[in-house]
Amino acid sequence: MSNERQVDADLVKRVQQGDKRAFDLLVIKYQRRIIRLLGRMVRNPSELEDLAQETFIKAYKALPQFRGDSAFYTWLYRIAINTARNWQSAQMRRPQPASNIENEDGETFDHVDNLTDINTPDAIMASRQIAETINMAMNELPDELRMAIQLREIEGLSYEEIATTMNCPVGTVRSRIFRAREAIAAKLRPVLQNESDFR
User: Can you tell me the distance from the alpha carbon of 74 to that of 71, in angstroms, rounded to the nearest whole number?
Assistant: First the structure.
């Protein structure tokens, strides 16, 4: 068991024994990650805080039944995803990935900013086109494929953690990630071909 997972397990045990401050520590530790995850599924920023709070309330209420079969944050992510899906069902909306990313200092940047290495107009235009194509391809993915690729590429979860979070076999996760990558690559090929023709 990893050190981080052990720390979480100890905090969970303390919460289960009645120590509410231990849960506050878990909230502080995972709040930003949960908000970022929810932000990829829910485009309404005014709803994010409420959904994150609802996620932690549900987790707190369910914690007495948590057995530690998976890592705490994997379990928490599943609760967050289900909370967001319930909200989407109620709103009758389709999730869209956020176009912004947040660095460790809490500063927000557009994906395009991170793709721009060379400040020539051609390089900026090419980077924007690539970012727009990736965002469009992500938007067109079915929910299961989009969630799998986001959890892998953006959140950095292992295949096993994604399987636990999405409640499906590891083989299904591998298949979904492969299909998502293939779909994104198919959309990118013409863009990258045009860029190489320019040079």
Answer: 5
